[in-house]
Design brief:
Strands 5, 10, 11, 12, 13, 14, 15, 16 and 17 form a nine-stranded mixed beta sheet that branches. The chain has a four-stranded parallel beta sheet with strand order 3-2-1-4, sandwiched between helices. A four-stranded antiparallel beta sheet has the order 6-9-7-8, covered by helices on one side. The protein has helices spanning 12-23, 68-78, 93-101, 103-106, 128-137, 186-195, 257-273, 304-308, 313-321, 342-350, 356-364, 378-403; strands at 4-9, 28-35, 57-64, 87-90, 114-115, 145-151, 165-169, 181-183, 201-208, 214-223, 227-228, 232-238, 247-253, 275-286, 289-296, 337-340, 368-369. The mean pLDDT is 91. It contains twelve helices and 17 strands. The longest helix is centred in the last third of the chain and has 26 residues, at 378-403. The chain is an alpha+beta fold and 404 residues long.
């Protein structure tokens, strides 16, 4: 029987990568695209998403990117199957938290990632202070930090903050990447916090700012007891603007001696919290020390690089929750390759952060593409068409502006 996989997320490239990964084992795909909505309840996104053009996608449903209850309503009203349980794979923090919160309701109809009985929730482990505390307990290195609580737009700045500092929301489900900023002084920090006054109640993590030498990520799969991390993802170029801190280009390779001990600690970390599903861990290098960054209990943006190298984490997850063996498929990367996220690349070009020449250099120098595919061509064609239309609109606006 062909299994159905429901992918929930905000990024078309992330959803597409998961769709293609599970399609390798014959699954059909339903997308729940989380999109912006206006205050009057009307969607700001009225065209089919780029991943919706994939030949592997059966249906696309839309939900506000802030509406957790809306996700559950779509799942229960439109995605259940009397003959078999569809598999849910969250692709962003909101969907991961919502699916876990409603696990007891959803488990009767779906197979999904979850915490082991007695373990704390996914939402609890999205708290970056909690993550750092466990990291220290596990013997991992972390950057020093303070916490600022904003309540009804009011806050107090604690003593002992070192400048420059780096501010980010304590929980990624509130504020997301909007609140990320380097602040060189207390006055800059105050300006930044005041600019986020629309978030009346939010906690911010204020970390000592470090000039990072290299950034890395690992993705893995955990069945609650056994944890697999196939290789290292080294970030070669990061995005700016609205995608600040997200990888445009990177390199995937096997776990080296430099990372071996750390990867072992990451496995123990995930095992200790009782998570069952796909996870992502960010970390970085300062001098000779590798520092823990953060844990995400969902598929990470560059995870498709593993699939293209022969290690299919979404397939492992689907097999496990369906009661099928998964340990017989490859679980370690062999060889190395560069990869590019074309969604980030296009947006960087449109926003003026890179030139057309740099765009082509990054695209042409990458072995693995996340959107382009010879087996599934339509998403890339649609992406190129929309990018060109958006570019021409910007050119026309520029001409009109100059003519006054």
């Amino acid at each position: 029987m062909k299994r159905t996989v429901i992918i929930i997320g905000q990024s078309y490239s992330g959803r597409l990568c998961i769709a293609r990964s599970v399609a390798e084992m014959g699954c059909e795909v339903i997308l729940i695209a989380l999109v912006p909505y206006r205050k009057d309840g009307k969607s700001l996104y009225d065209v089919k998403p780029i991943d919706g053009y994939s030949k592997y996608v059966k249906d696309v449903y839309y939900c506000s990117n802030k509406d957790g209850e809306g996700i559950i309503k779509i799942l229960l009203e439109k995605c259940t199957d009397e003959n078999s349980k569809p598999i849910i794979i969250p692709d962003n923090d909101l969907s991961a938290a919502v699916v876990d919160k409603h696990f007891d309701v959803l488990k009767a109809h779906f197979l999904l990632p979850h915490m082991k009985e007695g373990a704390e929730s996914v939402s609890a482990w999205m708290d970056k202070v909690k993550q750092k505390s466990r990291a220290v307990e596990m013997g991992l290195q972390v950057v020093d930090y303070k916490v600022i609580e904003i309540r009804n737009t009011k806050y107090e700045i604690p003593s002992g903050i070192q400048y420059p500092c780096f501010a980010k929301p304590l929980r990624s489900t509130v504020g997301g990447k909007v609140g990320l900023r380097k602040c060189n002084s207390e006055s800059e920090l105050i300006d930044h916090l005041n600019s986020l006054s629309r978030y009346k109640n939010i906690d911010f993590l204020i970390e000592d700012f470090k000039e990072i030498e290299k950034e890395f990520a690992v993705l893995g799969f955990s069945d609650g007891e056994n944890v697999i991390i196939p290789g290292i993802l080294e970030i070669l170029q990061l995005a700016h603007g609205s995608h600040y801190g997200v990888a445009i280009q990177g390199k995937v390779y096997p776990v080296t001696a430099e990372h071996e001990k750390l990867v072992g600690l990451f496995k123990e970390y995930v095992r200790s919290i009782g998570f069952v599903g796909i996870f992502d861990i960010d970390y970085f290098k300062l001098g000779d020390v590798l520092y823990f960054g953060e844990l995400n209990l969902r598929f990470g943006g560059s995870g498709y690089a593993y699939t293209k190298m022969g290690v299919n984490l979404p397939e492992m997850f689907v097999r496990y929750v369906c009661g099928m063996p998964y340990k017989d498929i490859p679980n370690e990367v062999s060889g190395s390759a560069t990869y590019v996220n074309e969604r980030m690349l296009v947006d960087e070009w449109l926003m003026g952060f890179i030139s057309k020449k740099e765009f082509h250099r990054l695209f042409d120098s990458s072995d693995i593409k996340f959107v382009e595919s010879q087996e599934d061509k339509e998403p890339f064609r649609e992406m190129k068409k929309r990018a060109w239309i958006d570019h021409m609109k910007m050119v026309l606006k520029s001409i009109i502006w100059k003519r006054g």
